Prior knowledge:
With about 350 residues, this protein is mainly alpha-helical. It has one domain. Helix content is about 55%, strand content about 0%. Helix 2 runs antiparallel to helix 3, helix 3 packs across helix 11 and helix 8 (about 165-180) runs antiparallel to helix 9 (about 185-195). The longest helix has 26 residues, at about 210-235.
Amino acid sequence: xxxxxxxxxxxxxxxxxxxxADDKAMLRAAAELTRTHxxxxxxxYWADLIAxxxxxxxxxxxxxxxxxxxxxxxxxxxxxxxxxxxxxxIHEVSHMKHSALPGFRAxxxxxxxxxxxxxxxxxxxxxxxHHAKTRYGTVEDPxxxxxxxxxxxxxxxxIIVSAxxxxxxxxxxxxxxxxxxxxxxxxxxxxxxxxxxxxxxQFRRRMPEGDALRLWxxxxxxxxxxxxxxxxxxxxxxxxxxxxxxxxxxASAVAVLNQVRxxxxxxxxxxxxxxxxxxxxxxxxxxxxxxxLPALWAPVGLRYHALHHLLPSVPYHALGAAHRQLTxxxxxxxxxxxxxxKGLPGLVAKIGRSTMVRx
Length: 359
């Protein structure tokens, strides 16, 4: 799941394409596990989401209401982690069969998507393109940039600009949404360029149609009203500037943490030609146990991001068991073992070193 675009101006003149033959044994084992782990458990989804929301908004309320600076900071950190986990369910929403979890998309939008101005349509119909076998790692992938092949300064910029996401989303929904209803040209621009959680600046989203368009319009209308109302409350003093600043700061922290997680979700070493499924897997990252911190910065199954590219239909709560079983099923020299890493610092350093290599 991604949020801020970055230009490709830092790309070297000679691009790198990863060519790896598919490992049939690994893919057969993954296909077998898909059949045995594809059942989503609604109780887990709802309990996890509601707990994350209660912790996130509860801590945010404490941060706003307390007069103590120390408590405000501590509560803001808790709010950021809780809301980040709740937000991360947008990834599950984009993959799930909604008949298996009736009402979950609507509930997520009501609790998280609209209040945080990241409604599900910003990811649905976009993220699935990232999983298309012929699109991954190419200019047609909305969630891919060859960051490891770009200039070193692009990595800190990639993270820093994400802090502006809450302001950008307020502008998108409070200003551009209503104005675009008056201009078909502006509407096309808003849909194509400002309606996707993507990092590829060349990606242009298609206009939705049919039921998808009707659902989009309903959710966007509510999100637009919420954004306008939030700004109006702050402008009239009903919501104090301190409270508004805390809300924006927590939302910015969520965006930055997500962007850091995005930075280490892949190795970002491909540019150009389509890749085999095995190559896509090896360009992706697992951070399995015994590491503990990934449960915070890569929640809701995102610590098994490489495995997710093999098993995109497997619900997040089953990925841990699938990882353990697949690890035991494949040979010791299987490429499956090569996508697991120890933690965040080593991954950031690895990508950073890649940008230092002169090509």
